[in-house]
């Protein structure tokens, strides 16, 4: 058995070509990261006007949230139906602290991230004792409570009408214009992807996957499962809050819709449609879920109906999500073409 | 005292609606282990289709209501057959997204076919309130509470006295064993969606004269019914009943004595409290996790 595996490993290594090495790099995510950087650098060449910049920026920030959420849902095997709440904590912290208290943007962002992290940390232990449906319900409840507070505290948050967000100031310098924000969002996305890829290669990341497979088995093997779940929950909340802060400044206006239940659902859907436990899947999911309503806008009043049908069909026919499904297909193709080649290796 | 009774009466009425919706959640959860986030849409269909058929008095209200409840039950079967049955059953997150997708689809269709406005349905027996120890109670409130009692009795009869009801109970206890005993589990699953849609539609018809109805009323009503089911103990009928009534009364008390602007938050605060301290709900039984 061992010898067989050893031989198989040797023949595979012997047949490794440049193309295969590239495929392996793609699989590990490094090439994907390089492609993302190149793509982000070149994209402004084809973005004709502010409308496109706006869409691309929304994709980028949703992708950041989805990557964070994927750590919690995809890798750690948990579920959250309340992450829009954390996104909104970041967005509203930035909006309120910079407009009412004239704090510098970066300070407001840090406070928002800390606040979201603190809320996540406080609820983490009791909430994460739950699993499955019960965890879904508890996170749903948490998200809705945040959204109700934002809607009702009109004197502070502006209530259902929303609130205007001043330009981002740093040492007397004001950042404005969607083109400039594009680079900030692109940098944030690249850093988040890099963070996610590295985290999953670390011992902590392997522990998370073990936990997703079987929490009881992971705990038996000596992992502090409760602590790990809490840490990844807090991390994903902080990432969502940072994206929320950037979103608030870049858009210049936010409403409580950003905190709503349907927005939370959207974030989870991005993770699931792109493919759970896939960093680039989360990015792809964010792109699809942001672009789809734009394409469907042409169908006018049928837009929601079609969106629902597409969502349900995707989940029924590609339950593993797009990236893992495509990965399987490609893997199958590679295996099929690799076989004769492997036979030829001496 | 009269004020308290007034609050209690309106709380019990709203609570009865939540209980009906919660019963639907529990019924589907028991047979299929699916949390059906489209449950609120059944409530909406019940109300909206009744309004559309009734069309200001073209046909009798009772006929319109019964037809709407029947149509909703058919929608329930269609949801099970088209979205739940073909779905992979092993991934909770995927199933949650599917039921949410179904609810977006139904809402989108209702918006186009049934209209975007608020619609009003006349109360079943007029609007002259009764005087109960100083509290004014509308006849519609009696209809709501009476319907809840009738539904509970009918369900008790169905599950205890009929072969079909017993087959459904058997399926919820152990699907494989039920299948081996010759129970048509697929049919039972469809039946549970039909019954659950029926309960939702009854709630929708009953509440339309009180709160008006619109294509998107299902979102909040569904979530509240879901809270009711979880607070009482997901999967138990008594749990949904008392969870719903408790929720309705708590909301009314909070709105009456604390602040009406945080009325909607009450359900979710109780939900979190129950999940933190009694995760199986007030009436649920603790279940060990199997590895």
What is the strand arrangement across the widest sheet of chain A?
Answer: 1-4
Please count the beta strands of chain A (DSSP E, at least 2 residues each): 4
Oligomeric state of shown chains: heterodimer
What's the level 1 CATH class of chain B? Mainly Alpha
Keywords:
heterodimer, A: 346 residues, mainly alpha, two-stranded antiparallel sheet, 77% helix, 3% strand, disordered C terminus, B: 291 residues, ABC transporter involved in vitamin B12 uptake, BtuC, 11 helices, 2 strands, 73% helix, globular
Describe the structure.
The complex is a heterodimer of chains A (346) and B (291). Chain A is mainly alpha-helical. Chain A has a domain at 29-259. Chain A contains 16 helices and four strands. In chain A, strands 1-4 form a two-stranded antiparallel ribbon. In chain A, helix 6 (105-128) packs antiparallel against helix 12. Chain A is globular and about 50 Å long. The model of chain A is unreliable at 1-16 and 338-346 (pLDDT under 50). With 291 residues, chain B is an all-alpha fold. Helices cover 73% and strands 2% of the residues of chain B. Chain B has helices at 2-32, 39-54, 61-84, 92-113, 139-161, 163-173, 175-180, 185-211, 218-232, 237-258, 263-277; strands spanning 130-132, 135-137. In chain B, strands 1-2 form a two-stranded antiparallel sheet. The radius of gyration of chain B is 19 Å and the shape is globular. The chains are: A mainly alpha (346), B mainly alpha (291). Chain A binds chain B through residues 73, 79, 81, 126-127, 129-134, 136-138, 140-142, 144-145, 148-149, 152, 214, 216-217, 261-262, 265, 268-269, 272, 276, 301-309, 311-312, 315-316, 319, and chain B through 29, 35, 83, 86-88, 91-94, 96-98, 100-109, 111-112, 219, 223, 226-227, 230, 234, 261-262, 264-265, 268-269, 271-272, 275-276, 279, 289, 291.
């Amino acid at each position: 058995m061992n010898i067989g595996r050893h031989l198989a490993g040797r023949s595979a290594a012997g047949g490794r070509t440049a193309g295969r090495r590239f495929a392996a790099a793609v699989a590990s995510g490094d090439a994907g990261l390089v492609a993302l950087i190149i793509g982000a650098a070149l994209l402004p060449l084809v973005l004709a006007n502010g409308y496109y910049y706006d869409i691309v920026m929304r994709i980028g920030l949703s992708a950041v949230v989805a990557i964070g959420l994927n750590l919690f849902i995809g890798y750690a095997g948990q579920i959250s139906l309340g992450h829009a709440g954390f996104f909104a904590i970041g967005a509203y912290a930035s909006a309120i602290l910079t407009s009412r208290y004239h704090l510098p943007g970066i300070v407001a962002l840090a406070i928002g991230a800390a606040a979201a992290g603190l809320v996540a940390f406080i609820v983490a232990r009791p909430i994460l004792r739950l699993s499955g449906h019960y965890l879904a319900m508890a996170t749903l409840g948490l998200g809705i409570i945040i959204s109700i507070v934002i809607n009702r505290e009109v004197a502070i948050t502006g209530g259902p009408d929303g609130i205007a967000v001043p330009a981002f100031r740093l040492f007397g310098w004001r950042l404005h214009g969607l083109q400039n924000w594009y680079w900030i969002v692109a940098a944030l996305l690249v850093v988040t992807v890099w963070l996610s890829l590295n985290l999953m290669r670390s011992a902590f990341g392997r522990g998370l996957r073990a936990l997703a497979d079987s929490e009881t088995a992971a705990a038996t093997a000596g992992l502090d499962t409760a602590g790990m779940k809490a840490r990844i929950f807090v991390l994903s909340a902080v990432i969502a809050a940072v994206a929320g802060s950037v979103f608030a400044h870049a858009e210049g206006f936010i409403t409580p819709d950003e905190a709503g239940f349907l927005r939370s659902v959207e974030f989870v859907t991005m993770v699931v449609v792109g493919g759970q436990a896939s960093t680039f899947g989360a990015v792809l999911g964010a792109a699809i879920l942001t672009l789809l309503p734009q394409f469907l806008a042409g169908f006018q009043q049928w837009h929601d109906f079609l969106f629902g049908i597409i969502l349900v069909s995707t989940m029924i026919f590609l339950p593993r999500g797009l990236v893992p499904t495509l990965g399987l297909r490609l893997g199958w193709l590679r295996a099929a073409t690799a076989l004769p080649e492997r036979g030829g290796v001496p | 005292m009269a004020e308290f009774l007034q609050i209690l009466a309106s709380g019990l009425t709203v609570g009865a609606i939540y209980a009906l919706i919660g019963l639907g959640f529990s019924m589907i959860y028991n047979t299929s282990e699916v949390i059906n986030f489209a449950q609120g849409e059944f409530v909406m269909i019940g109300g909206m289709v009744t309004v559309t058929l009734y069309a200001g008095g073209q046909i009798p209200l009772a006929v319109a209501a019964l037809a709407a409840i029947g149509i909703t039950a058919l929608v329930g079967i269609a949801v099970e057959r088209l979205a739940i049955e073909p779905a992979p059953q092993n991934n909770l997150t995927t199933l949650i997204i599917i039921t949410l997708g179904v609810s977006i689809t139904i809402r989108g269709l209702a918006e186009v076919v049934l209209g975007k406005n608020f619609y009003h349905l006349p109360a079943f027996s007029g609007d002259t309130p009764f005087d109960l120890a100083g509290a004014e109670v509308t006849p519609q409130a009696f209809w709501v509470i009476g319907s809840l009692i009738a539904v509970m009795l009918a369900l008790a009869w169905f599950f205890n006295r009929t072969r079909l009801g017993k087959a459904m109970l058997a399926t919820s206890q152990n699907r494989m064993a039920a299948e081996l005993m010759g129970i048509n589990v697929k049919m039972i699953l469809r039946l549970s969606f039909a019954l659950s849609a029926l309960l939702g539609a009854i709630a929708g018809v009953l509440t339309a004269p009180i709160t008006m109805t619109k294509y998107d009323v299902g979102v909040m009503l569904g979530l509240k019914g879901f809270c009711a089911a979880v607070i009482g103990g997901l999967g138990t009928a008594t749990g949904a009943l008392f969870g719903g009534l408790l929720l309705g009364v708590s909301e009314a008390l909070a709105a009456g004595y604390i602040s009406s602007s945080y009325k909607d938050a009450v359900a979710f605060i109780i939900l979190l409290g129950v999940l933190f301290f009694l995760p199986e709900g007030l009436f649920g039984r603790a279940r060990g996790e199997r590895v």
